[in-house]
Amino acid sequence: MIKRFKFMAIVYTVILAISLSITSVVAASDGNNNSDSINEKFGLPILVLGEALSDAQRDQVRSLLDVDDPEMVQEHIVTGEDLVNYIGGDASSNMYSSAKITRKEDGNGLVINIVNPENITEVTNEMYANALLTAGIENALVEVASPVKVSGHSALTGIYKAYNVDGESLDKDRMEVANDELNVATDLADEEGMDKEKVSELLTEIKKAISEQNPATKEDVERIVQEQLENLNIELSPEDREMLTNLFEKMRAIDIDFGNVQNQLEDIAGDIKNKIEEVTGNTGFWKSVATFFEDLFKGISNLFSS
């Protein structure tokens, strides 16, 4: 009976230890650079709420985005008409995704934080970051939320509107190709069954290669796309390879200079690699887990042999 009690105590300790370990890993990966200080150079943060939200849902989004005082943000509503104006979308679309944008000084980089990722089902932090860099948005903290499960695509339009009302005019061609990029990213994750992190890694590495090689023709872009697919051991259908090539050819044609955001691309690449390692390659953590269980089972064996 005593041995059984000791055994149950050990099992409980194991469960608790595993829970604490996993919680520590998750908590470490969820940190962000939020700050309560307002940069007077850029004014108040801008909160953009989806038009389809009810009053109660808008209050929920304000809570999710830490908007306790309405006078501490500029608040705007993003509509289907905005979708038409900024990316040529469908005016009848329901807009649920919402965002808070806090401008930062040069050198701070672009930080994306999806505050409730369980409700943003298709788009990741890195997908948003890649698309927003394509659109010409840098040095900002962008927080995204939705009170209902949505793909997350409409948040881009709200972010574009925030920059428009803040007195900065984003290039419409860049906004449209950024939206195309987000669609390609989610299509690859859906149709090809690729991990979302792997999709973001592919897009980031292609951009880095384009900034380094400055392709002059569509054939050059196609070669870069193929090289990065091979480097990352990714196999795509001919149709999806062509889709990728066409996307980056659009970027080349409107002369997007990714060299200007090379450091931010490096930051995205580093974040992606860290996430992939946490899931599949954090050898130090999993080795410690294996050692823990090896020692544990030795102890249990000794307990019952005594």
What does this 3D model show about the protein?
- The chain has 306 residues and is α/β, with parallel strands linked by helices.
- The chain folds into two domains: 2-29 and 283-305, no CATH class; 46-281, no CATH class.
- 58% of the residues lie in helices and 9% in strands.
- A five-stranded mixed β-sheet has the order 2-1-3-5-4.
- α3 (80-87) crosses α5 (155-165) and α6 runs antiparallel to α9.
- The protein is globular, with a radius of gyration of 23 Å.
Q: Tell me the count of domains.
A: 2
Query: Could you tell me the strand content as a percent range?
Result: 5-15%
Protein structure class? alpha/beta
Tally the beta strands: 5
Shape: globular
Give the averaged pLDDT, no decimals.
Answer: 83
Helix content: 55-70%
What is the CA-atom radius of gyration, in angstroms? 23 Å
State the major sheet: 5 strands, mixed
Strand order of the largest sheet: 2-1-3-5-4
Give the end-to-end Cα distance, rounded to a whole number of Å.
14 Å
Number of helices: 11
Low-confidence stretches: 3-35
Secondary-structure element pattern, one letter each: HEHEHEEHEHHHHHHH
Oligomer: single chain
What is this entry, summarized?
The protein is 58% helix and 9% strand.
Defining traits:
5 strands, globular, 11 helices, alpha/beta, about 300 residues, disordered N terminus
Write the layout of secondary structure elements.
Blueprint: H1 2-29, E1 46-50, H2 55-64, E2 74-78, H3 80-87, E3 98-103, E4 110-114, H4 125-135, E5 140-145, H5 155-165, H6 172-191, H7 196-213, H8 218-231, H9 238-253, H10 262-281, H11 283-305
Parallel strand pairs: 1-2, 4-5
Antiparallel strand pairs: 1-3, 3-5
Helix pairs in contact: 1-11, 3-5, 4-6, 4-10, 6-7, 6-9, 7-8, 7-10, 8-9
